[in-house]
Amino acid sequence: MDNITISNMALSHIGVANIDRIDEASEPARLCKQFFDMARRSTLRRFPWPFATRRETLGLLDTEPGDYAYAYRYPKECVAIRKLYDENYQEIPEYQRYKILGDKEGRVIYTNVEKCICEYTADVKDCDLFDDGFVEALSWKLAADIAFKLTGNQNIQNQCLQAYNAYFDEGSTDAANEENELDPRLDRFARARF
């Protein structure tokens, strides 16, 4: 799987001829190149896809955290933070939330959790890592993004957007069904026994 294959899937959704290279001198190739990364990142951000899930111990910053005890650098390849954990991999409770702000070097996570570990969706660019449901959704997202510019038909763009949402729902449900996470309530009771 590569960005050409996914781009050609998107082009076929809107009835436009395939491209051979992403950098060829054609309007379809130019638009696929222009919108591919944004469509990929947007589709990644909407759901914690297992293939893109990463965990990382956050780097403590030497900065004044204000209302919080600690400040950490936002993970470099992160498109969306999903959970924060303490050093024992216990998810931080709802009342102990975090805040994300920017500084001159990027984004900063403020929290009261010492030795914080972050679970996030990474900015995965290697198409070989994408699962099939993600590829299908991404191809429809890209089709929706380029449809009007290539066809001039708002209805085709709207149909692509509807298909994107349907395939996204199907793909994210399939991905979620692959996971085997403990129910937090059951996990709490199991920990109380020890």
- Specify the biggest β-sheet: 3 strands, antiparallel
Query: How many separate domains make up the residues?
Result: 2
Strand order of the largest sheet: 1-6-3
Give the terminus-to-terminus CA distance: 47 Å
Structural class comes to alpha+beta
Low-confidence stretches: none
Task: Specify the helix fraction band.
Answer: 40-55%
User: How much of the residues is beta strand, in percent?
Assistant: 15-25%
DSSP strand tally:
6
- C-alpha-based Rg, rounded: 20 Å
Q: Which word captures the global form?
A: elongated
The succession of helices and strands, N to C, reads HHEEEEEEHHH
> What would the average pLDDT be, to the nearest integer?
90
In DSSP terms (H or I, runs of 4 or more residues), the helix count works out at 5
Essential attributes:
3-stranded antiparallel β-sheet; 194 residues; 5 helices; alpha+beta; elongated
Please characterize this protein's 3D structure:
The chain has 194 residues and is of the alpha+beta class. The protein folds into two domains: 3-47 and 131-176, no CATH class; 50-123, no CATH class. Helices cover 43% and strands 18% of the residues. It has five helices and six strands. The chain has a three-stranded antiparallel sheet, covered by helices on one side. Strands 2-5-4 form a three-stranded antiparallel sheet, with no helix packed on it. Helix 1 (3-13) packs across helix 3 (132-151), helix 2 (27-45) packs across helix 3 (132-151) and helix 3 (132-151) runs antiparallel to helix 4 (154-178). The longest helix is centred in the last third of the chain and has 25 residues, at 154-178.
